[in-house]
Input
Amino acid sequence: MASLPKPEELVKIDYNPPRRGWMDNPVEFRRGTWLYAAKPRHLEALGLPNPREWSPEEEDWKLPPEWREIVLEGFKERLERFRSLKLFMDICSRCGACADKCHFFIGTGDPRNMPVLRAELLRSIYRRYFTLSGRMTGKLVGARDLTEEVIKEWFYYFYQCTECRRCSLFCPFGIDTAEITMMGRELLGLLGIYPDWIIAPVANCYRVGNHVGIEPHAFRDMVDFCVDEIENVTGIRVEPTFNRKGAEILFIAPSGDVFADPGIYTFMGYLMLFHEIGLDYTLSTYASEGGNFGLFTSHEVMKRLNAKMYDEARRLGVKWILGGECGHMWRVIHQYMDTMNGPADSLEEPVSPLTGTKFENARSTKMVHICEFTADLIRHGKIQLDPSRNDVFKVTFHDSCNPARAMGFFEEPRYILRKVCNRFYEMPENTIREQTFCCGSGGGLNADENMEMRMRGGFPRANAVGYVREKYGVNLLACICAIDRAVLPALMDYWVPGVGVAGLHELVGNALVMKGEAERTTTLRGEPLKGSGDDENT
Amino acid sequence: MPKMVLAGIEIEVDEDGFIQDPDKWNEAVAKALAETEGVTELTEDHWKVINYLREYYLKFGIAPMIRKLCKDTGFTLKQIYDLFPSGPAKGACKIAGLPKPTGCV
Output
């Protein structure tokens, strides 16, 4: 693994464009800035094309002999199938409004990370092969031939986009660069070009039920451990059930919350909440993943992984599905599920059994976000909270890209935060809500071998956290996404040491007053409730 | 897939040196893997962690949660880092012959 430069080195970002035009600069695969190639066994497990051993560092990518025809045919099909793609290829006026909105451009100074130019990587091929002017006049109108160098460039830059969609917010035409990246990735996929970090979780999810690869008995062991930990802190033994037919609600969290630090504390928060309100719910060891790395792979794979949740809901006979704190899961549910596997007519329109609130926004997908559910409980006075139990924290909130920009989900998490902690400070307004800056590692880029690029991409987010740390002494970054929980600790340690990371329902778990509980002396992490709150790392 | 000679046998490893076939693992391989991680001597404490990971993996097909590892072995996370400078996942699990974790981790 490449060594990571020191922050004071990395921050010297050169914004001068290279002397030569972008079409004449072949990509250099420098370690620390790209993802390893997918292992053949994972492609085989999924029935994806061209499984083989290869590496982006090597000259020969072992493409099939007719690779050019495959890509152009795939491009043609997609232009016919997705009107949005055709539109996005045609309407960009290259005004540049998006150019400096991308966290990867800000963190690298690489012009090909300007969203306009990232799209141009694909658009130049579109012009050459699918427009008359491009066929006739070539480079004069920004068209170029499809070569292996182009394929390599696509791989490098389409996996230097986290599909966060901040750029789209500023586009006067509403071009969704994430969708362009997705198309670029699909075309690469036709040649068997995927990163292992994405395709291994997808294969795991397809075979075992979740990205991490937790088999049913291990899933049970991990949940049992969380149950023990909750009992240690609260004196109360919560009793989750597994694969229980006839439960009212199926609860699905991202698997990172079941397995990884600090997600497990968020998971404990969910279990405590459900126990306290007496929710009739079940977990599933089969649909044990809310996330969907298929979104980072292709529409077909996304659809396959998404279907599992609904199949399981039908099998168990639940009324509706409650989903945990995950980012891209909600982009899939909110913007693709309905026309992909939906509408989910076999389930019922979600109604909170505690408050009677109808979640009309989920009428078609039958899937409710835990934050909507909890905010509604608080609003109706159904749970008792003691925010002073989070007094060791000065909290700021990172809007996870997908819930923010794909759902417009801004108020519910903030409403909950203000009820569960006393000290909450916002980052500057052009870095939150719909303008939120990405963690820098979403979209399936959260592998360790990509660490330099992750630190670069996360720099704008970290910079905003640094601002509130300096101004208010913030020591905790709250978020509602499992990728965030996995990657922000490394980002904070690198750029803003002393700031911890927690899911929102971890803070809910800390603050939740449970009937018959022992006096709380520690947080869910086992750390003392009382502290200065100024410099303590979580 | 790259191969490495570990303790006299040729073993397939991934780009970061994680062995691909857990069945090829034995104590001599662990020692050889430890050297690639800059751990020159495997003490009793090292073996306590390695054996725990190994047993958990054979039973559950995955690494244990880090907090569970700490609880069950009695080591703090800092102590684990002292023993395995690359940490529980990249250091200890690698030496114990477990695969690299994937997903939102």
